[in-house]
Amino acid sequence: MRKLTFLMVILLAFILTFSAAAQEPVTIEFWHAMGGYNGEIVNTIVERFNESHDDIQVEAQNTGSYNDTLTKTQAAVQSGSAPHIVQIYEIGTQVMLDSGIIIPVEELGREVAQDDSFDWGKFLIPVSNYYNVNGQLNSMPFNSSTPILYYNKDAFEEAGLDPNDPPQTFEELKEYARKLTIRNEDGDVERYGFTLGIVGWFVEQMTANQDALLVNNNNGRDGRATESYLDREPVVRFIELWKEMVDEGIMLNPGRGWDGAKQAFLSGRAAMMIESTAQVTNFTNNAENDGYELGTAFLPRPQGVDRGGVVIGGASLWAVRDHPEEELKAAWEFLSFLSEMEQQVYWFENTGYFPVTKAAVEHEMNGQFFAQNPNHLTAFLQLLLSKRASSTQGALIGTFPEVRQIVEEAVEKTLQGDMTPQEAMDEAASRVDRSLEQYNSLYE
Amino acid sequence: MKEQDYDSHFSVPYLLILPSMIILTLFLYWPTIQSVILSLYRTAPFGARRIYSGFDNYINLFTDPVYRASLLRSAVFVLITIFGGLAVSLILSVLVNQKLKGIKIYRTIFFIPYAISPTVAGSLWVFLLNPVAGHVNYFLDLLFNVQVPWLTNGFFAFIAIIIATIWKNMGFNIIFFLAGLQSIPDSVYESARIDGANSFQIFRKITIPLLSPTTFYLIIMNIIFTVFQSFGIVDIMTQGGPADATNIVIYKLYRDMFVNFRPGLAAAQSVILLILVLIVTFFHFRFGSRGVHYQ
Known about the structure:
The complex is a heterodimer. Chain A has 21 helices and 15 strands. By secondary structure, chain A is an alpha+beta fold. Chain A folds into two domains: about 25-145 and about 310-370, Periplasmic binding protein-like II (D-Maltodextrin-Binding Protein, domain 2, 3-Layer(aba) Sandwich), CATH 3.40.190; about 145-310 and about 400-440, Periplasmic binding protein-like II (D-Maltodextrin-Binding Protein, domain 2), CATH 3.40.190. Chain B has a single domain (about 60-290), classed as MetI-like (MetI-like fold), CATH 1.10.3720. In chain B, β1 (about 40-45) and β2 form a beta hairpin. In chain B, α2 packs across α11. Chain B is flat and about 75 Å long. The chains are: A alpha+beta, B mainly alpha. The interface of A and B includes residues 398, 412 and 442 of A.
């Protein structure tokens, strides 16, 4: 009798747990690297999703920088507690493809979720091109940006330059910077013509803008990259310009990273700079508050060199395969929700990151958003007018984060005068080659 | 009450050290063994592949000029930071050891840097040394009409992280020096003064030797601080740059592990670091106590 009661109790407990589970919504973990204001926008979108989906609960968590997020994902995968969706920066694409932990979003949508209504052609070509590898879309484009040239129109007028005629070539950039530089009676520079933070991304973009490749095998798109082209003319030419301008005292070297250059430009210590399009809103507001007019332009390129264009930067959302089917379906539901027009428009207008779908762009065109915000239009046109080629599709490199650091070190060595641009880039190229060889040998 | 007889059973001593052994094994020995094992493999990101490679990671490290330069740089960094730091701290502790009005406030002020986190300390220095809006350059410009490229020139960046690290550890050193100074009995000073010694002689012949146990302890603690804890300051201030000028071993290790995703290589570096620290500690305990005077 006692045994029977015991068995009944167990059974009852079982039934209760299961029925409770059936009512519980499916919980999806979403790790992202959006901090501060952008993080709040992510939270708002997630809340909207949760409110409109009773059966799914998305838990968004900020996991630090892009690099931290990648590191934490690795640790989580190895300890069996990986999130369902994770935001990874564009240079983590190859390493995610090689990780063996992801499910391509196209497979997730088509085969797992059987979502036939989803339009795979809805994304802007330059954006989906980056994340399209092996014939399918591997991750969901999310926050996309490219660099553009920002300049202070008031400073242009002061220096006798036409504020509506920004520099288009390397030569013009130098000439303009020279005119924009102001020195006091001691010869100290009070305002620099130009500034640029030492960030590897700019070197990559300037290379693409000259329609040149960063690595062999068509930027690693036709096969694994085995050789770096950092020592070739397009890269070296840009580093040379950088060094010449810093040496001449018409360009401020704010050191590695983003903050120094941004601070210099916003405080009026530099009249031109190159920064991410994600800063358009921020810079425009700043200019309004400080009472000057902000101008934007396409990236300059050497005279006589055909324009390639810019490569999409930012990050995309990856789905992790090792989860129950029910949860994967819920993850798809969320990813698909993010690509809907309302969310795209909200995201774009609040953060400055590009809308990544055609519908959202059309909506913004019709709503006169671009007409009222010409700086956003510059950012957008530069992307759309980019040539469709491997150069602007972006390089796939397994050790891209390391490559970026090698490039940044090379720039520093050049600016310090330890090496000439060619010497520094030769060294960087051979270091990248070695890094590629070591990485590739892991997957042979 | 009857006194416990700890020799009553052979297992008693073992039982007594068991709790600390469990903790040490879990948090020290086991990870160490793991590191040694990991250093013999090349591991793909996400652990997808693991290839046994023997001592390849070590060979790669020692044939890499970047790593050798980093080792040398760290040695220079540690030596300057420790001796510079201890000298400054000693002078300051002698100063705050005087009976002045509000001396407790001064002591607190000197201790504050130690209480804040390395990240905050690093950020403060970045603000101060900022080439555009930094106060240090503002005053240097005002006084000497010079602009120092603190964080964008390798040499000055190296100096900057040394200054920041010394400043950060100063509070800790001062507290210990102060305790040491106050434990020196006044009678010793009195008799020295009666014998006609001047302040410098007293400092040189009495204070320094009698402080040597404290100094000895501080040297070891400072080596550990400088090698491991300066990471936060370097990460915030220079990220190992410009052009590797401040890339000390602990930072390179971090980068290889968390940015370059080479767990094997990073593990090999941590094993090398462990061996180096063991050697330093051994030499100090073996020979370092010779010049130390205990009362």
